[in-house]
Amino acid sequence: MEFEAKNVSNTSIETNHILAGVRYEIRGELAARAAELEHQGYEVISLNIGNPGLFGYRTPETMRLAMIENLSQSEAYCHQKGIFPAREAVVMQQQARGVMEVTADDVFMGNGVSECIDLALRAMLNDGDEVLVPSPDYPLWSAAVALNHGTPVYYHCRPENGFQPDPDEIRALITERTRGIVLINPNNPTGAVYSRELLEEIARIAEQHQVVVFSDEIYDQMLFGEARHIPMATLVHDSLCATFNGLSKIYRACGYRVGWVSFSGQRETAREYLHGVELLASLRLCSNVPGQWAVQTALGGFQSIHELTRPGGRLFQSRQAIIDGVARSRFMSLHAPDGAMYAFPAVDTSLFEDFNDQRFAMELLEQQHVLIAPGSSFNVPYRNHFRLTTLPTGRKMETVFERMEEVLESMLPG
What pLDDT score does 4 carry? Predict the structure, then answer.
């Protein structure tokens, strides 16, 4: 029997239209070009991603031992919310911070915070629902809102205001379609840390309009100088608060892929939603089990992050090298980061005919083999900022700023 062959030579597989609103340039065109240069034998200084293990930071040994000792208990699926010791450790940490009503049933373990964000938004959003997201933001938040059929609505954390949110703007942006407010504190990409007074005002706005607060606190203990982190869950009582955290940054364990979301505040009216989150958690069966055994040791043990962030510590010194590098530059300015592992410098565009952050990033990569993330990658309307991680040594960072200065010099008109 003969079959007529179909002409499929020009047939293409179409992309889901929803991806048109999704961007993640941190691992995009620039990163791909950096990989090509490395394959050609060049050494690239990659400052585009906060990945401590690439810069010699080690996960605390006690966490590695906790996983090894429990490998025999890690071969089967665990409960869809995660193993009890890990969830209970999150509860104990929350209680130590003043969030007393949380139980292990309110905690969901995920394959990194990224999965927890997706689960929390997917269980909530319908077509056209709105979520208020900071600008600049960590682009996963905007992407996760869009991928789950919602609409990200940006409230601006302006450079001239030290990258702090404006509660009045947040209040004005809320509509009948608003379902949640995203806070990233300490902030990625700017390093801003928010005051108690500011957070209290945002909490009251959320309670007044009965919207969920999604509080991304993955950098909660990565603080410098007099900066203090205020857990949003201690302030939100009459609305639902979802607090996201994990092992990747404070405990330098990105590859373990262990994150969690803890729900607090007004849960009585959120029962159906929380059942939806659990349904989605069940559908993926469970998150990575071996890594979960490190949670109890991490949260209950010695907090080595403080040795890195105090004066003389490696993260403190790298941050200072960035501050000093900007101070020496004739082209750049900076609001010094108070937290997290990033800085978000600005370039004085008055010195250039048509400055573009993407072009600068590509020139820096091609000429000096330094990879940064353009500021426009973080959903901002301006094109003169860029993000770099503070993970390299202070000496390496000095080299980076010397190379940046050379590229900026080469971009001057005339």
Answer: 58
What lies within 8 Å, CB to CB, of 282 at 6+ separation is 80
Which of 218, 258, 253 lies closest to 60 in space, CA to CA? 253
- Average pLDDT, stretch 60-86? 96
135-164 pLDDT, tens per residue? 999 999 999 999 999 999 999 999 999 999
CB of 241 closer than 8 Å to CB of 215? yes
User: How open is the CA angle 7-12-14, to the nearest 5 degrees?
Assistant: 145
Task: Measure the CA–CA gap between 388 and 113, rounded to whole angstroms.
Answer: 21
**Phi and psi based region of residue 340 (left: phi greater than 0; alpha: psi -120 to 50; beta: remaining):** left
Listed in sequence order, the residues at least 6 apart from 215 whose beta carbon sits closer than 8 Å to its beta carbon are 183, 185, 231, 232, 233, 241, 242, 243, 244
**Across residues 256-263, what is the average pLDDT?**
97
Whether 370 and 389 have beta carbons less than 8 Å apart is answered as no
Kindly give the pairing relationship between strand 212-216 and strand 151-156.
unpaired
Distance CA(180)–CA(214), nearest Å, equals 7
- The residue ranges of every structural domain in the chain are 22-57+307-410, 61-300
Q: Give the CA angle between residues 57, 62, 68 to the nearest 5°.
A: 105
The CATH number that domain 61-300 falls under is 3.40.640.10
Work out the angle between the directed axes of helices 357-368 and 394-410 (0-180°, nearest 10).
110
Cα-based distances in Å from 285 to 36, 110, 228, 282? 37, 11, 37, 5
Q: Does the domain made of 22-57+307-410 have the CATH classification 3.90.1150.10? A: yes
CA 214 from chain center: how many Å?
12
- At 305, which amino acid appears? I
Token pair for 274: 């929380």
Confidence band, pLDDT 50/70/90 cuts, at residue 8: low
Q: Dihedrals φ, ψ of 202, to 5°?
A: -65, -35
**Lookup: tokens for 286:** 């469970």
pTM for this one? 0.93
Question: What are the tokens at 411?
Answer: 């971009």
| Cα–Cα distance measured from residue 200 to residue 204, given in angstroms and rounded to the nearest whole number | 6
Predicted confidence (pLDDT) per residue in 325-368, tens digit: 999 999 999 999 999 999 999 999 999 989 999 999 999 999 99
DSSP 101: T
